Amino acid sequence: MSETSLVLVSVVLFARHPDAPVPRVLTALRRQSLIAQAEVLLVDGREAPPSDLPTDFPQLRRIVAEPSNMPMLKARGIAEARGAFVAILDPWDEPDPRWLETIVAGFRDQGIAGVGGAVVPPAAADATNRAAFLFEYGAFNPPMISGPSDGEMPGNNFAVRRDLLLADCRDILRSEGFNKPFCQARLRDRGRVLAMQPEMRVVHLTCHRLWPFLASRFQYARCFGATRLRFVEPGRRTLLRIFAPLVPALLAWRHLHAAATHSGNRVLLRGARAQLVAICLAWGTGEWLGYWLGAGDSCEQLY
């Protein structure tokens, strides 16, 4: 049996900031029951070399990368993956003990190209972090519907058949990295089925301060808006630019309504409405400017 055939799942984990809780996530991965059939690719773009990585973790391979943004670091890991499935995990998301098992179970149906899982908040969080969670991951907080989905999928808890990802998204991976909205949209455009798997669960660990988080969402949104224009037909570009001024208000209404009507998110919204609106306005303004003025240097600052 070849070395490649022994790898069932390639877990791609990136590190860009020195404060990323990588050791905690690696500890959770070491405890997975299927870790012997997996590889963990830590794509490390930190300028200072880490001193706290385990030395007795044979499935771990650290890939030293030039400092880059989050999507490009993920794409570097995908390029070096050997598994039948590639699982994307962020360093702020701690997987449940059966995470790898549920990923493999999600692909028993040969018609499924990719699976996304649940993202849950930590036990305690202040208003800013609850608002940040609702904005980014509220759609993936249980309860959620299992099975094929045409809706949004997480980018920090997502697994895909490697051969299909490379076949359908090679150009995106090369130019934009694993920028999840565009890769997932391309898979669907090619007729691939993406499914939600609630048992595939991670706990989100980040601790945000409001103003830096608003700035990061603005930058991400400006990059998203500018990049989106390159992947749509000319007529749709015109519509996106015309209606761009409405994006901040529509985004705020959508997120407030979604949180208020979701049993798992309603309690998180208490005392966090103002922060959630501020995040929506920051994103909406960035997306608006991206449509009209381009990305500037925003794409270099993603995470």
Mean pLDDT across all amino acids: 94
Biggest β-sheet, characterized? 9 strands, mixed
What fraction of residues sit in β-strands? 15-25%
* Protein structure class: alpha/beta
Can you write the helix and strand succession as a string?
EHEEHEEHEHEEHHEHHHHH
Shape: globular
Low-pLDDT stretches: 1-5
| Relative helix content | 40-55%
Number of E-type strands: 9
Instruction: Figure out the total of helices.
Output: 11
Task: Report on the architecture of this protein.
The protein contains 11 helices and 9 strands. It has helices spanning 22-30, 70-80, 99-106, 127-137, 162-175, 180-189, 210-229, 234-243, 247-260, 266-269, 273-293; strands at 9-15, 38-44, 60-64, 85-89, 93-95, 112-120, 147-148, 157-161, 193-204. Strand 1 (9-15), helix 1 (22-30) and strand 2 form a beta-alpha-beta unit. The chain starts with 8 loop residues before the first strand and ends in a 10-residue tail after the last helix. Helix 9 (247-260) runs antiparallel to helix 11 (273-293). With 303 residues, it is an alpha/beta fold. 44% of the residues lie in helices and 18% in strands. It is globular. Strands 1, 2, 3, 4, 5, 6, 7, 8 and 9 form a 9-stranded mixed β-sheet that branches.
